[in-house]
Write a structure and sequence with these properties.
about 600 residues; alpha+beta; four-stranded mixed beta sheet; 11 helices; 32 strands; elongated
């Protein structure tokens, strides 16, 4: 082989790299069937030779190597004396010896050079790398910590910093003092409400709609509604007032009002404590303060407290109405435009008409209340329910022989004025002088002590006017409690009287037990059960406890319409109702009778 290439060490390294790349190239490509074409191999090699052509002098490596590869396109074999041969299996190989003794690129050389190289994928231990251990000995671990002193300037930088949790004085925060001043000018809120001291006085005109809202409200003075703002209220509008009043004592008048001969109420029948009373004392402190009614009048005739006072029961104090004068004739120059000695009419005295009208109304109410109540006027020995002829001598009345001095009641005389009370005498009978028998008013009641028909009975005066003189006017008396003997009671329908024992007649539907209890007879009486039909079951069980299976029933809906429902008597206390659909809550009610 002529013109051998003389390679320097640098060139040898380049050739070695070139061969490595050629070997890598062909190791990555499968050999074609029948071997490699010279043209194909030449093209691959030439492309690599161009990389080093500029680095080899004096002739390019491309020119020298080109002669070692066959350019015969028809040949499927690499020429035998080529430097680089391609075996049939596709591997690259070099000839054992070069064609010339000066040819440095031979297999032995290449193998020797390759033996000096490491594989492309290999590892080294730390000791195989020169200086690596010494270098690493001065290095820190990838994950490590430092003391603050190891970081230059860190201590100085942190010295001027505050702790993460710290507090400040108000003066340390810019603008906080000004904020405090603004907060102090705000209202204080206690539980979300503005303190009353922080609310300014506002006129009503500044509150929208307040006047209109107040126009529809009542005026309350001291939390009390004035009487002129209340409509009249009748007693039937006050719950339970009748029950409450019925249990109270009538404190206005006594249970009995006496009338004198002139028809006026006797003074003893009037409770003067109910009316304004007059009290005189030497000073206000000496006036009584207990046992008084509102409107009591106190009079101090002399001294520092001289004057007229009115008693206020709300706070038990005496209120001065007018001051007295030392000289009644000369000290008063004029009264209501009059001068000199003045005479005042009732109309000119303030409050007199009101006080007088109030007193008259109280008396009128007392009289009306008294007249509406029955008043017992005592008892007489006998009463006659038939006319008595000739009111003289000791007569037998209602089976009782009268005695002189007996008071009797006549109720059936031909002349009404002869009715009423009489005192029996051996000669002419006279009217009684006792006030209770000489005058009385409507609803007066008298008890009869003895007599076959009227003994133990009560009689009522049924006249409409007060009888001031028993000898004049109409005296109408009627029996209101039928009796006889010692409280004998006449029996009516359904009752029987056997020697003073009242019994229920047989067959009336009632039975008395020996213990005194009263029982309805199931065979002659009908009882009723009413209840709500239970919800949620088509067969609703009704427990009526009527103790019989002979019952009739009716079911009603919520509109009180009758509903047809089948039923079965389960027992003498239980009835089963059959519904097409289970009833809802309170949908039906049932009435059972038996």
């Amino acid at each position: 082989m002529a013109d051998n290439i003389e390679l320097t060490t640098e060139h040898k390294e380049m050739v070695t790299q070139l061969l490595d790349r050629i070997r890598a190239l062909y190791s990555q490509t499968s050999a074609p069937v029948g071997g490699w074409q010279a043209s194909t191999l030449s093209a691959q090699v030439n492309s690599l030779l161009e990389l080093a052509s500029t680095a080899i002098q004096p002739k390019t490596l491309n020119d020298k190597l080109a002669g070692y590869v066959s350019n015969d396109a028809a040949s499927s074999e690499v020429i035998s004396n080529a430097v680089v041969k391609r075996k049939v299996d596709g591997n690259i190989s070099l000839p054992q010896t070069a064609s010339g003794e000066d040819d440095a690129v031979n297999k032995s050389y290449v193998d020797a050079e390759l033996a000096k190289k490491s594989n492309t994928g290999h590892t080294h231990s730390q000791g195989e790398i020169v200086g690596l251990s010494a270098t690493l000995s001065n290095k820190a671990d990838a994950v490590h910590q430092h003391n603050m002193a190891d970081i230059n300037g860190l201590s100085n930088a942190l010295a001027g910093k505050a702790a993460s949790s710290h507090t400040h004085e108000m003066r340390d925060i810019n603008g906080l003092s000004r904020l405090e001043e603004r907060v102090n000018n705000k209202v204080d809120l206690v539980f979300g409400k503005v303190a009353e001291s922080n609310i300014p006085n506002l006129p009503m005109t500044k509150i929208n709609g307040l006047s209109r809202a107040l126009d529809g409200k009542i005026n309350a003075d001291g939390f009390k509604v004035s009487p002129d703002q209340l409509d009249p209220i009748t007693t039937d509008k006050i719950s339970n007032i009748d029950d409450f009043v019925s249990g109270k004592i009538n404190s206005v008048v006594s249970s009995k009002i006496e009338f004198d001969q002139s028809g006026k109420i006797a003074p003893a029948s009037i409770n003067y404590n109910q009316y304004p009373s007059l009290h005189e004392a030497a000073s206000v402190s000496a006036l009584p303060k207990t046992g008084l009614y509102k409107g009591a009048i106190g009079v101090i005739k002399s001294g520092e407290d001289e004057g007229t006072y009115w008693f206020n029961t709300d706070n038990a104090t005496w209120v001065k109405l007018a001051s007295g004068v030392s000289n009644k004739k000369t000290s008063v120059n004029s009264v209501n435009g009059k001068t000199g000695e003045v005479t005042l009419s009732i109309e000119e005295i303030n409050g007199w008409n009101t006080a007088r009208d109030g007193l008259e109304q109280l008396i009128s109410d007392a009289v009306a209340a008294s007249e509406a109540k029955p008043v017992f006027i005592g008892s007489v020995r006998v009463a006659s329910h038939v006319g008595v002829t000739g009111l003289t001598g000791l007569k037998t009345i209602d089976g009782i022989q009268t005695r002189a001095g007996d008071v009797v009641l006549l109720s059936a005389q031909n002349v009404s004025s002869e009715n009423g009370f009489w005192v029996v005498a051996a000669t002419q009978w006279v009217r009684p002088s006792q006030s209770e028998f000489s005058s009385y008013r409507p609803n007066a009641i008298v008890a009869i002590s003895e007599g076959t028909a009227n003994g133990g009975t009560l009689w009522r005066f049924s006249g409409n006017a007060v009888v001031n003189n028993v000898a004049n006017g109409v005296n109408s008396w009627s029996k209101i409690f039928a009796g006889g003997g010692s409280g004998k009671i006449s029996t009516g329908s359904g009752l029987s009287n056997n020697a003073g024992t009242i019994s229920v007649k047989a067959g009336q539907g009632l039975t008395f037990s020996p213990d005194g209890s009263l029982t309805l007879q199931a065979s002659t009486s009908v009882r009723k059960y009413t209840g709500v039909v239970p919800e949620g079951n088509r067969q609703a069980r009704i427990v009526h406890n009527l103790n019989t299976t002979d019952v009739i029933y009716q079911v009603f809906d919520s509109q009180r319409n009758a509903v047809l429902v089948g039923a079965t008597a389960m027992s003498n206390t239980t009835l089963s109702l059959d519904f097409a659909n289970a009833p809802a809550r309170n949908q039906y009610t049932v009435v059972v009778m038996g």
